Amino acid sequence: MAIIRCPACDRRISSKAQSCQYCHEPQVKLTEAERERMLLRRWRDQLYRARNATYLAMTVVVVGMIWWWLAEPQGLALPIPMTPSVLLGIGVVGYVCAWVWLGWLRFYRKPGRA
Ligand SMILES: [Zn+2]
Questions:
Q1: What pLDDT is stored for residue 83 in this prediction?
Q2: Residue 30 vs residue 106, higher pLDDT
Q3: The dihedral sign for the CA sequence 14, 17, 19, 23
Q4: Cβ count near 5 (within 10 Å)
Q5: How far is the CA of 43 from the centre of ligand 1 (A)?
Q6: Ion ligand 1 residues within 5 Å by Cβ
Q7: For position 114, what pLDDT does the model report?
Q8: What global pTM score does this model have?
């Protein structure tokens, strides 16, 4: 008996199981090639989501900058007003987190590696 990852939910299950004990995805009909393809598709979806998160975070930073620029007194004057500083904080932290997520997916979760 080997431990494999469920292609649907990615949790560890027995290779002998008829279906995943967590998400009840049937396992028997899948060949090794189909399983690999499903894992690869899942991984690509996650990469896509992580990349979207970096764009979203970048957008939040840009909106924060524009807000800061337009707020009185005009032109990125200090101190940063409340709303833009919150947006910039969330955006920068979110951006860093999204890149860490992206890097983790690329280097540790790439299918085909044990
Ligand atoms: Zn499952």
A1: 86
A2: 106
A3: negative
A4: 15
A5: 15
A6: 6, 8-9, 20, 22-23, 25
A7: 45
A8: 0.64
